[in-house]
Design a protein that fits this description.
The chain contains three helices and four strands. By secondary structure, the chain is an alpha/beta fold.
Length: about 100
């Protein structure tokens, strides 16, 4: 099935495991370039080998205001501006109180 997303850039927030990695695999089959953004750099070590060659994992905490611009700039430099945005439900920060 042609979804019409060939050569589009997909950004998955909250993307270090599970649903996000599965979504990246399916998007790659549709010939997109996918960037997964997650907070846990250790998980990226297990995610990177699973990702197709053009896809990337970016580590960073987008919930911190000082990090938002640098993460966006990094993603743009790796793949360009995203055409598709997936907000993974696991991306929500839990209160530590």
């Amino acid at each position: 099935m042609d979804l019409g997303i060939k050569r589009k850039v997909a950004l998955i927030l909250g993307g270090s495991q599970g649903i996000a990695v599965s979504a990246a695999a399916h998007l790659s089959k549709a010939a997109t370039t996918t960037v997964l953004k997650g907070r846990d750099a250790k998980r990226s070590n297990t995610t990177d080998p699973i990702l197709p060659q053009n896809d990337r994992f970016v580590q960073g905490d987008g919930f911190l205001p000082k990090n938002k611009i640098s993460i966006i700039d990094l993603i743009r430099s790796l793949a360009g501006a995203p055409d598709i945005l997936i907000l993974n439900p696991g991306a929500a920060r839990r209160d530590s109180t």
